[in-house]
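I am still getting used to backbone structure tokens and would like to learn alongside you. Please make up or recall a protein chain and show it to me in full. Would you write everything just below, so we can both look at the same thing?
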Amino acid sequence: MKPAVIYEDLGKAPYREAWDYQEQLLKQLQDKKLHAAKNEQNGTDGGYLLFCEHPHVYTLGRSGKDNNLLIPEEKLRQEHIEYFHTNRGGDITYHGPGQIVGYPIIDLDLLNIGVKKYIFLIEETIIRVLREIGLEAGRLEQATGVWMHLNGTEIPQKICAIGVRVSRGITMHGFAFNINTNLHFFNYINPCGFTDKGVTSVEKETGRKWDFEKMKDRVKKQFGEVFQVHLTNQP
């Protein structure tokens, strides 16, 4: 029987609000896992998959450097962009309208996978979604995420960034998939710390905007199939 994972669409959510909610769900899952271990019970709840869309925000991971933000705080205020130091891995990235942000809060022990496999499966989820709509994407060695234009003649372009935290075997944070994202805001940072790579979106690659809700449905479906979990709606 597939583990059950609760799916919840937060809609348009401020970054801090979504981060606090993740921490709340993480703590609940950790407590249930600890209780099960003490009582010699098998497994825990599968966890959660949260989708949302953030207002303009830059987030910096634990290993990131502030100098990868290329504009002063005054410019951030003028552009109405928030900036957070987070507890995820990775460097700096951008979240904003037109981007599907996914936060899986799941027990890797229940799925019997490690962190590397977990990231591989997130990448696989997005690669399959892109293939469904006729776009070929892949992985880049020593560069987490999903990339396009990997034929060696162009600069690799990231279409989905990944940054995670794992605590007691349970994940939080996740991925940011550029659908109809305004790529202008990536000009203010060195995305993920890179200065020799670019950023793209589904809209840029296809020349048209995509139905955002239908794209979320595609990601949700592929996530369930790739991770072999049963997604249920929030009760």
